[in-house]
Amino acid sequence: MARETTPSDLTITPRDVRFGRGATTERWWMGGDPIATAFYNALSATFPKGEAFFVESVRAFREGADPKLAGEIKAFVTQEVMHSREHVAFNRRAHEAGYDLKPLEDRVDWRLDMVRSRPPIAALAATMALEHFTAILAHELLRDPRHLAAADAETAALWRWHAIEEIEHKGVAYDTWMHATRAWPRFKRWQVKAKVMLLVTRNFLVDRSIGVAQLLAQDGMTGPKIWAGMFWFAFARPGMMRKILGAWASYFMPGFHPWNHDDRALIADAEKALGGGIDRAGAPAYA
Fold first, then answer.
1. Residue 103: inside a domain, yes or no?
2. What is the tally of structural domains in the chain?
3. 17 within a domain of the structure (yes/no)
């Protein structure tokens, strides 16, 4: 049943966890698969600057929010700051393994500069769309353990921890958008939301594909066969992009809300799987 609101009993809990400090990450840490490794490395390259942008965009519209939403925005900001911290550390290990992520980071800067040149509500709309994207990717990552089965244990734990929190705060940007556009006609709100999601989707697919190809080129892998391999990985096997298609399309439906699908059970299961690696009290579980 569609709820069209964030659950009243949802608690967004920042989990202060550190991963991989003092460790060395193998160049092809995803089971020796360069394409799978490049896919996740390219995603990680976007997170520090991208999540800082999300925080900036949501905080710009927190004034006048009801106490529940205000508290969720605060928790969202704390989670995103820690995500940025851990992906800075992960990206440093990727650099130590021999990858230059700067071209990917420069493209993120270029995209964000374009969004920042528009009114702040455009940044919030882009954040809302990208938060839905990350939430459905996180859902698929936790739903099917095969996605990270070949990863080294510490890196897999990082991605599962991140996915847990992306699911948990998946309604914050959307609820902030509803607060910020509360005076808009319903059709205008849907129209802007839909147009921005289509633009964000195009840019996401183009930019991440370019980023993956750039990383593979650093391994000396170029040409049509590599692009075919990238497509196969994303849309065939394991096919994460194909598997999120239905959840992506739901964004355009009347009455959509990120919590229409309550997937908190995935959070509970993932926390159990991580065992002692998650400390909900806030103390680092990894030194």
1. yes
2. 1
3. no
Residue 144's CB is within 10 A of a number of other CB atoms, namely: 14
Q: CB-hemisphere CA count at 13 Å for 60?
A: 18
- 88 vs 98: CA distance, rounded Å: 15
- Cα–Cα distance for residue pair 4/256, rounded to 1 Å: 6
> How many whole angstroms separate alpha carbon 238 and alpha carbon 26?
21
Identify whether 213 is part of a domain.
yes
Give the integer Cα–Cα distance in Å for 211 and 206.
9
Give the three-class secondary structure for 74.
Answer: helix
Using the CB atoms, write b or e for 15-46: b if 16+ within 10 Å: bbbebbeeeebebbbbeeebbbbbbbbbbbbb
Any domain includes 227: yes
Cα–Cα distances (Å) from 199 to 211, 215, 221, 234, in that order, read 18, 24, 29, 19
Domain of 268: which CATH number? 1.10.620
R_g (Cα) of the chain, nearest Å: 18
- Which residues, listed in sequence order, are joined to residue 30 by a DSSP beta bridge? 151
How many residues appear in the chain?
287
Q: Quick one: how far is CA 223 from the chain centroid?
A: 29
Judge contact between 92 and 45, C-beta under 8 A: no
Could you list the pLDDT tens digit for every one of the 287 residues in the chain? 345 689 999 999 999 999 999 899 999 999 999 999 999 999 999 999 999 999 999 999 999 999 999 999 999 999 999 999 999 999 999 999 999 999 999 999 999 999 999 999 999 999 999 999 999 999 999 999 999 999 999 999 999 999 999 999 999 999 999 999 999 999 999 999 999 999 999 999 999 999 999 999 999 999 999 999 999 999 999 999 999 999 999 999 999 999 999 999 999 999 998 875 444 333 333 32
In angstroms, the CA 3 to CA 263 distance is 13
> Which residue segment(s) compose the domain that 51 sits in?
34-277
Helix, strand, coil percentages in the chain from 3-state DSSP, rounded to 5:
70, 0, 30
